[in-house]
Amino acid sequence: MNLKNLQWAYTKDEVRNINGASKDEKYFLDFNLKIPLIYCKGEINKPYWRKEPNIHDDIIREYFGNSESVEHYNTKMYFTYYKKLSYKKYVFKADSSKSEHYIKQINKIIDVMFFDVNKEPLLGIEVYKTNKKTIQDINKFEKLNFPIYEYNYNTKKGEFISFGGNGVAETESIKGEIRRINKLISDIKNRVRGSDRHISVLQKGVELEKEKYFKEKEEIELLEFEIEVFKNEFNISREIQRIEEDIIGLEKTIETQEEIDIYEKAWGKENINLRDIHKKSRYISSFTDYNF
Question: Which of 82, 124, 155, 249 is deepest in the core (most CB within 10 A)?
Answer without folding.
Answer: 124
